[in-house]
Amino acid sequence: MNPRKAAVLSLNSCIKNGRFTNIEVDSMIKKYKFEGLDKSFFTALLYGTTERLLTLDFVITKFSNIEYEKIDPVILCILRIAVYQILFMDRVPDSAACNEAVDICKTTSHSENQCGYVNGVLRSIVRGKDKIPAMIEKEGGRKSVSIATSIPLWIIDSLCEDYGEKTAFAFASYISGISQSVTLRVNTTKTTRESLLSALGNHASATAGSPFGIRLDGSFPVQELYGFADGLFYVQDEASQLCTSLIKDVNESTVVTDVCACPGGKTFSAAIQLGGKGTVYSFDLHKNRIKLIDSGAERLGLTNIRTEARDARNPKEELFGLADYVICDVPCSGLGVIAKKPDIRYKDKSEVENLPEVQYAILCESVKYLKKGATLIYSTCTVRKAENEDIVEKFLASNPGYHLESTGIFGKEDKGYVTFFPHKNGTDGFFTAKIVKD
After folding, report:
1. Residues tagged active-site
2. d(C-alpha 160, C-alpha 177), whole Å
């Protein structure tokens, strides 16, 4: 099995079966024992092709003499993988992308005519690739941006409605061109940022906003990094780190409740903020996912975390009125992290439309944990106002006895909530609000 054919089969599986790309990548690497360059090339092909699917399909449609809907699904995946190499992988010769695609076509039991079709389409694209930008531009306005960035039009429209075309287009363009990086949150119960920076070497730098963060340029097998096994860090974006930095003035009796905790990043941050003291109650709907938090806490050496499977819409009565802080990181559309998780961009719009109802219900139940004067941190990894400001303002309008306080995250006064934009802040797209009980 070579990486190109594996990428074709995996892409087809992901599309046909709704399988997540990251799960498919891990599974295929283990199955075919890919290592070194083969592992890197396979991963880049599958992630990259998934990320650029709309662009690739537009190009294929323009150069194909067969209607898009009539192209065999596996043939379409062969074309997508090859066109991705031709348009986005400078180090791959066009001839290699074309020849390998035809060979894959033959080894997947396709007819001579189908192999000829693949060869013809790809050769035409190679000859005409300089004309592709003009083809995309000709579509005009939001549609051009959608095709060029491979972000579905409904998402572009939603961002335009919330922030105007200038910000929406800047967001989309930045997301489509962002280079891979990994951000770590230092476990300050075990080490300092300065010490870990020194150990990680030249490819590591301190994050600008979070005093606990380290950015690594490029993509790394995190488990192989210095300090992973010893629990000196875990992966967490800077915006998420800044969100939990609102937990302050803690002592041995401080109680934090994290109502939608998995995979556990904010729970770990809270436990570290408490200096290993106090108690962090960490809840999540899915019992099997709670194991992720338990294993992460064990690796990090955090013993002040108490986990339990629980629906956030059904809070634990015996904990009502006890929390100094509640972390309410609700399920969301995830549009702020589509650069890292390409599958998210292809969610059906209908999957997103019902989220505000769920988010509002969780927020209304979660405030029951707060003691007088305590803080609830409401957050999402999206930038849609319908899931962010609108939820917070609706809650405040309908629930007297709560108010917003400035987060101070950017070093200045704000309305009590902030939105992080990748193209402005260099972080994931993210939202944080600070709600205080009177």
Report:
1. 381
2. 19
